[in-house]
Automatic annotation (TrEMBL):
Cofactor: heme
Family of the protein in this entry: Belongs to the cytochrome P450 family.
Record Pfam families: p450
Tagged with keyword Oxidoreductase: yes
Keywords assigned: Iron, Metal-binding, Monooxygenase, Oxidoreductase
Classification via InterPro entries: Cyt_P450, Cyt_P450_E_CYP52_ascomycetes, Cyt_P450_E_CYP52_fungi, Cyt_P450_sf
Gene Ontology molecular function: heme binding; iron ion binding; oxidoreductase activity, acting on paired donors, with incorporation or reduction of molecular oxygen, reduced flavin or flavoprotein as one donor, and incorporation of one atom of oxygen
Protein name: Cytochrome P450 alkane hydroxylase
Length: 146
């Protein structure tokens, strides 16, 4: 499985491989790698439980450092009180906003696609997606771009 993952990634078809796994194995997959057992899910009920309703039952533990290197210090890499604080900040923003259409995103998606199109063959997506997120949230919260 690891070999197939690396091979698919090098051929830029990793998402297709994951889709194949879920199609063949179902929405919840148990996997063991180097003696450690983990679970992967795309079941909306489980995702909701992990990110919200049963968050206190599930923690990052020693995996936090691995995720932190990729995602940084934010809501997706926090546990306990810091996570609750980050989530509450975000929840208040989303409760205030009424997304009646996707028009608010059009300009920012166009800018995102153009930035990716102009990029060289090897691309660092993190600053591009950071800028997209900043532009979109600023526009939605303050009704203006950055």
């Amino acid at each position: 499985m690891v070999y197939r993952g690396f091979k698919a990634n090098s051929e830029q078809r990793l998402l297709s491989l994951f889709s194949e796994f879920y199609d063949n194995l179902g929405p919840n997959i148990e996997q063991t790698l180097l003696g450690a057992t983990g679970f992967v899910t795309m079941d909306p009920v489980n995702v909701e439980a992990i990110l919200s309703s049963r968050f206190n039952d599930i923690g990052f533990g020693p995996r936090r450092n691995s995720f932190w290197a990729f995602l940084g210090d934010g809501i997706f890499t926090r546990d306990g009180v810091p996570w609750k604080h980050s989530r509450e900040l975000l929840r208040r923003q989303f409760v205030r906003m009424q997304y009646q259409s996707l028009e608010a995103f059009n300009e920012h998606v166009d800018n995102l696609v153009e930035a990716i199109r102009r990029a060289p063959d090897i691309i660092d997506l993190q600053p591009i997606f950071f800028r997209y997120t900043l532009d979109t949230k600023t526009a939605l919260i303050f009704n203006q771009g950055t």
